[in-house]
Amino acid sequence: MARSTTFVLAGLAVLTMSFGQVKTATPPSASGKQINQLRELRQNAFKPGEKLTYIVHYGWVNAGEAVVELKESDRDVLGRKVWVATGTGRSLGAFNTFYKVDDYYETHFDAKGVFPYAFIRRVSEGGFEFSQDYLYNQHKGEVTTQKKETHKVPASVQDMLSAFYFARTLDFANAKEGDEFTIETFLDDELWPLRMRYMGKETIKLRNGKYKCLKFQPVVQEGRIFKGNDDLNVWITDDGNRIPVLAQAKVLVGSIKLELTDHEGLIHPIAKQ
Asked: What are phi and psi of 166, to 5 degrees?
């Protein structure tokens, strides 16, 4: 299945990208050493209580389900609130018999700056299993992995799930067709720039109605999972929520489609006709 549910959650991390107005606040430093500023954003795109549910089609078959949910945390970091987002992916029906998928993603991110402090990943796909645990020291620009290795990273670097929320805080008003945007992300033990190309506005029809959308093409590594950049397209709502409603991809074997089936706790009315 070419890890179709992993495609769902990885794709969510690059669905909405552009530039926004950001202000920063300098944290205290007892030693006087140079440290990164902690970013602050003004955003009204999401809040705790939001839940998005997707069905994953592999060809004509309902192959899996993905759920992304945002909640408040009972902890804080330096007096700053922390929110917790989780993403789960599981196979459905006949796929359980020959390619069982049971994936779990969790990010703890700063509510003001939308950058992560910790990321947890548990993957179980077709008998293949692995875990990732990342701790982010945003002051020092470092990420420490489960291998006890520390990597230098840019300020406010994202993990694959927090990037989805960070991107939704940004403004597409001045985006022109063909523009490419990047979010620096730490993924699979290395710095990974998530890039995508804006393709304009489009109204699409799904099983549960029509949606006014912005269309994007993530810039992918050709020959790995996807055939090429033109073979992966994503549509997000053209409203204040900026949530993905459809993603389609031709992979090396077959095709995959991700479709929004349910949503809860949105701040804005969804852009639906």
From this structure: -60, -45
φ, ψ (nearest 5 deg) of residue 119: -140, 135
Distance CA 184, CA 196 (A): 12
pLDDT digits (tens, 9 = 90+) for 126-161: 888 999 999 999 999 999 999 999 999 999 999 999
Residues 6+ apart with CB under 8 A from 204: 210, 211, 213, 235, 245, 246
CA distance 257 to 251: 11
CB 244 within 8 Å of CB 53? no
Cβ atoms 214, 34 nearer than 8 A: no
Give the global pTM: 0.85
Each residue's pLDDT tens digit, 3-59? 434 444 444 433 333 333 344 444 444 444 557 888 999 999 999 999 999 998 887
